[in-house]
Design goal:
Helices cover about 20% and strands about 20% of the residues. With about 180 residues, it is of the alpha/beta class. The relative contact order is 0.20.
Length: about 180
């Protein structure tokens, strides 16, 4: 079973369901899809929302390994995606890169606009968008405890300061 968590924000609920449908429509292997909803994370995700967090899942996404009891592999995806290929291809990447802590699309992206979706401030930082789709080797992500995710600087989470560079695997950019 491939476990997929999708970031959920009430302002983007249609996007969540659209992505979930596209995953299920393309999948040739069993898939379990769970929304990553702040209202379901009470007592687990306790940090107040910061001014640079454009969605409710901006930082909650890094709880996926803890929510998976640091066992197996889990996929996290932002809700504003469409799955145009079979997620079984991601399972192949897990087999090929089983020694990695996390596997991502390593974009070389620098936003040009100062604002983004829903007129939120656009923050520029290294490794921008790498966390939009993450395949977590949950056992190798034990740093991402509830306490750490609730207290670490948001940019440290998004820049993968919680793991070694050599443990960050590559996905084809088409996946994001």
């Amino acid at each position: 079973m491939l476990n997929v968590y999708i970031g959920y924000d009430p302002r983007e609920s249609v996007a969540f369901y659209t992505l979930a449908h596209s995953i299920l429509r393309q999948a040739s292997i069993p898939v379990s899809i769970a929304p990553l909803m702040q209202k379901q994370l009470k007592g687990i995700y306790t940090r107040p929302r910061g001014p640079t967090e454009s969605t409710e899942f901006s930082l909650a996404r890094f709880l996926v390994p803890a929510l998976s009891d640091f066992k197996g592999w889990s996929i996290y995806m932002d809700c504003d995606m469409l799955c145009r290929a079979d997620v079984a291809e991601l399972a192949v990447q897990i087999d090929l890169q089983h020694d990695k802590a996390v596997i991502v699309c390593k974009h070389d992206y620098e936003p040009k606009a100062g604002r983004k979706f829903l007129n939120q401030v656009q923050t520029k930082y290294p490794r921008k968008n790498w966390s939009s789709l993450m395949i977590f080797n949950n056992e190798r992500c034990r740093t991402l405890t509830e306490q750490y995710v609730n207290s670490a600087a948001g940019l440290d989470l998004h820049r993968f300061a919680w793991t070694e560079d050599r443990l960050i695997g590559d996905l084809p950019l088409e996946w994001n």
